[in-house]
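Students often ask what a holo structure prediction actually looks like on paper. The answer is less mysterious than it sounds. You provide the chain, you provide the ligand, and the output is a string of discrete structure tokens encoding the 3D arrangement of the protein together with S-adenosylmethionine.
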Amino acid sequence: MNPYESEALLDQYLLFHYGSAEQVLPYSGGPVTALEFPRRSVVENIDTTVPRSRALDLGCAVGRSSFELSAFCNEVVGIDLSRQFIAAAECIRNEGELTYRRLEEGEIFTQLVARRPEVSRPERIRFEAGDALELSCNLGDFDVLHAANLLCRLPDPEPFLASLQSLVTKDGLLILTTPCTWLGEFTRPEHWPSGTTSQWLKEKLSGEFNLLNIRDMPFLIREHARKYQWSMAQASVWQRK
Ligand SMILES: C[S@@+](CC[C@H](N)C(=O)[O-])C[C@H]1O[C@@H](n2cnc3c(N)ncnc32)[C@H](O)[C@@H]1O
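The corresponding structure tokens follow.
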């Protein structure tokens, strides 16, 4: 079963995308710079004061980055393989909020509400369940393509990288982030990069894209009240030649 279809991961991702600092990390001395990754992966990698026409958010999960993109892009398409993630994102887009559970420990939960970000323009967004490796040829092209922490969840990421040139317009931006967590359960080892992920991305993308920036971006996923995953994504921003 796709782990992203489980109720536990739905709750975890709703908190990761929409939880306040206090709801996610109610401790002093915690890694506060790792909070709000799905917002930061957009606003820290793109100049949001420049209006753009079309954005594609691949592996959008429960949708936070798509809402951020809608603040400055006229049209946003958010695509994810998980039907329940897309249903949650669509509910937040339509209704403005969605109730979910935060696991405390054992079978103890707290009820919370995920709210649509104030900056967003929901009428500009379309959420779709779909596979990033089998996108419809009618999607068209985009001047922003955002794919956060998707690469190392794909069964075969190389054809995915090869498909990006046809999805991004000339001078358009490609934002890729990845924690480089290569796992056999998602990607067979023969499809892992043979060197480092950053070397591999440069090899595969440099023909069609210029690398504008590469940097580290921490993120924090809360599993329960006393257990967190702290990870360091590598974020790279590319411009289509
Ligand atoms: C690690 S999560 C990252 C989600 C989100 N971008 C974020 O930063 O929170 C990976 C996401 O990719 C989705 N995914 C995995 N394989 C996919 C595929 N082939 N096509 C589209 N989405 C996929 C999963 O359902 C999940 O939502």
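Strands lie at 52-58, 73-80, 97-105, 108-115, 125-129, 142-148, 168-178, 209-224, 227-240.
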